[in-house]
Design a protein that fits this description.
The protein has a two-stranded antiparallel sheet with strand order 1-2. The chain has helices spanning about 35-40, 50-60, 70-89; strands spanning about 1-10, 15-25. The protein contains 3 helices and 2 strands; from the N terminus they run ββααα. With about 90 residues, it is of the alpha+beta class.
Length: about 90
């Protein structure tokens, strides 16, 4: 499953992630996956994050972020890498 153009919304508050793709591979435990092999080929590291929790911490700044800080840093890094590659091209 690929999630594109993630948008989290609560009332007037909205946070968008148009440059982020979240890929979920559900069959990985059952054997080899062409998608996982492709991601490894391009050195794209796997990770785990709940989209619900990601949305909550993106929308509500008063909620403690400590537990999710590594995930947020990783997402920020991915977006910055994309921006730097796009700026070069």
């Amino acid at each position: 499953t690929l999630d594109l153009n993630l948008t989290f919304r609560q009332g007037e508050n909205q946070k968008e992630f148009p440059k982020l793709v979240i890929a979920e591979v559900k069959q990985e435990k059952m054997g080899s996956s062409n998608f996982v092999d492709l991601m490894k080929k391009y050195h794209i590291q796997e990770g785990a994050i709940s989209k619900y929790c990601f949305g909550i911490i993106s929308l509500y700044k008063h909620i403690k972020h400590n537990k999710f800080k590594p995930h947020l840093l990783k997402v920020t890094k991915i977006i910055r890498q994309h921006d730097s590659i796009t700026a070069i091209n």
